[in-house]
Amino acid sequence: MALTKRDLVITVAKDTGITQVDVKRVIQQILSAIIESLKAGKTIELRNFGVFKVKQRAPRRGRNPKTGQ
Asked: Can you tell me the distance from the alpha carbon of 24 to that of 26, in angstroms, rounded to the nearest whole number?
């Protein structure tokens, strides 16, 4: 089962005693900052967690499942 943003908010709120509204606001700001940095072509490295970066891929050929084209 996947951990949703809502699950994360509830867990952090319980563990810290901070309201869910405030935790949600902070998590959303963090995600927005990551998105904006990636849009600007930057790489985000969070030590002991992971690295976020935009990876260019070759285009795929699409197909309309109704028509087969």
From this structure: 5
Q: pTM of the prediction?
A: 0.74
Q: Is the pLDDT of residue 68 over 90?
A: no
Cβ density class 25-63: b for 16+ within 10 Å, e for less: eeeeeeeeeeeeeeeeeeeeeeeeeeeeeeeeeeeeeee
- The first and second tokens of residue 18, run together, are 């901070």
Q: Where are the alpha helices (DSSP H) in 1-69?
A: 5-16, 20-39
Orientation angle between helical segments 20-39 and 5-16, nearest 10 degrees: 130
